[in-house]
Write a structure and sequence with these properties.
heterodimer; A: about 250 residues; alpha/beta; Rossmann fold; nine-stranded mixed beta sheet; two-stranded antiparallel ribbon; about 25% helix; globular; B: about 200 residues; seven-stranded parallel beta sheet; 4 helices; 13 strands
Chain lengths: ~250, ~200
């Protein structure tokens, strides 16, 4: 079983994210970077599925600047076999470019399954997997809560987190699956794993190498801080509360 | 033929409330672009849901029918809605950022060669220079994005757009066969386990 999995380098989810005073981007001085938590879950799931299938190969892909190599090495240290860095200027990417880069690698590698995080905690776009699945004409199962291989590895039964519950879908492989928080708890890379990772193959490619046009379909033209919280209001009666909830907060 | 297409959602013949907020967003877009909007709903036997959508000011309500749409799957919905959007010449495709919207809207965008602005909280600017505001870093930053493609897909955060009220004249309701290539579908809906909650819906 061959699985292609992504690993995005993002700001540490526990870092405080604040815009620069000129609003040209976020302040990165005291910010740590690490693998997107949903991608960590994807790498972990790839390891578990290959194990359950009795063996296979896991290829990890990062798209970003040279620093993103660290995230590929982390995935290799967790147990992935080979890695790619598609080196690009991160400020000039959109979900669609990333999806098409992924499609080029899928065409090259021919995996049975592609696993991604449902979204990256910086962009929160939640688009790459679905875009890639449509370009490939493949079935998808996003926001996976549980993944089981079926039909001797020819299919997968995925339970998905949806509004108000859990939906089960059956996909035939090859397919794209994205991970949600409850899918698994990723392992830490062991020291022997970290040492082995240094020798595992890691190839750097450019979008041109993969024949992918990098013109932006979606472009960020500015940033603003979130709206400041208004002060709380005290009410005297339940009726007043209900009225405010309905008309001002529009919560009911 | 309208330039804005709203994708409405139904589950077991019941219209999703979030879809009314998507119509609200389409109205804002229509005002800015001087255009009109249609609402489409997909499924099998969804004439009743389509009829429910007839009072919101749409130029037309379209029920896209196919056996393969009797349950939701991303592949089938992307084909049905995407191909209708293409055939109707829609320049904007609007859906609510619900589980279904988030799951299939990017596929529709890919199918149309369109850029997609996801989970938007407002539409700013004027025709030809529209800017969409959307949260990043879990809402710690609000980004302003523009979409450079001739066709644009947006998913809207329901709480940030008003629900349209049923005050318009009755829109014409049309039913047509959805363009779904059943042979290309490699996924099946198996079931849904609802989490019972005592909170009001």
């Amino acid at each position: 079983m061959k699985i292609l999995v992504t690993a995005k380098r993002v700001t540490d989810p526990y870092s405080k994210i604040v815009l620069k005073p000129d609003r040209s981007g976020i302040q990165t001085d005291n910010v740590e970077f690490k693998m997107n938590p949903f991608c960590e879950i994807a790498v972990e799931e790839a390891l578990r599925l290959v194990d359950a299938a009795g063996g296979g190969e896991i290829v990890v892909v990062a798209v970003g600047d040279e620093e993103a190599t660290k995230e590929v090495r982390t995935a290799l240290a967790m147990g992935a076999d080979r890695g790619y860095l598609v080196e690009t200027d991160e400020s000039k990417l959109d979900s669609d470019i990333v999806a098409r880069l992924l499609v080029a690698l899928v065409t090259k590698e021919n995996p049975d399954l592609v696993l991604l995080g449902k979204q990256a905690i910086d962009g929160d776009n939640n688009q790459v997997a679905q875009l890639a699945a449509e370009y490939l004409g493949w079935p998808q199962a996003t926001c996976a809560y549980r993944v089981e291989l079926t039909d001797g590895g020819k299919g997968a039964r995925v339970q998905r987190e949806v509004d108000g519950g859990v939906e089960t879908v059956q996909v035939s492989l090859p397919a794209i699956v994205t991970t949600d928080l409850r899918l698994n708890e990723p392992r830490y890379a062991s020291l022997p794993g970290i040492m082995k990772a240094k020798k595992k193959p890691l190839e750097t490619l450019s979008p041109a190498d993969l024949g992918v046009d990098t013109a932006l379909k979606v472009e960020t033209v500015g940033f603003e801080p979130p709206p400041t919280r208004a002060a709380g209001v005290k009410v005297k009666t339940v009726d007043e509360l209900l009225e405010k909830l309905a008309t001002e907060a529009k919560a009911i | 033929m309208a330039d804005i297409l709203v994708l409405a959602e139904q589950q077991l013949g019941k219209l999703a409330k979030a879809s009314l907020h998507a119509i609200g967003a389409a109205k804002i877009l229509a005002e800015k672009t001087g255009g009109t909007f249609e609402v489409a709903v997909a499924g099998q036997g969804v004439g009743g849901v389509a009829a429910q959508l007839a009072g919101f000011g749409a130029a037309a309500v379209i029920a896209l029918e196919h056996e393969a749409l009797s349950q939701y799957t991303a592949q089938a919905y992307a084909q049905a809605f995407g191909d209708y959007a293409k055939a109707s010449g829609a320049r904007f495709v609007v859906t609510a950022a619900t589980a279904i919207g988030k799951d299939c809207a990017p596929r529709i965008a890919a199918r149309l060669g369109a850029g997609m602005a996801a989970d938007i909280i407002s539409i700013e600017g004027s025709a030809g220079a529209l800017v969409y505001r959307r949260p990043m870093w879990a809402g710690n930053v609000i980004a302003h994005v523009k979409v450079n493609t001739p066709t644009v897909v947006v998913s809207v955060r329901p709480t940030d757009f008003p629900a349209a009220d049923a005050s318009g004249a009755a829109s014409p309701v049309q039913t047509q066969a959805a363009s779904v290539d059943a042979g290309s579908l490699r996924m099946q809906y198996v079931g849904l386990e609802k989490v019972e909650s005592s909170r009001p819906s």
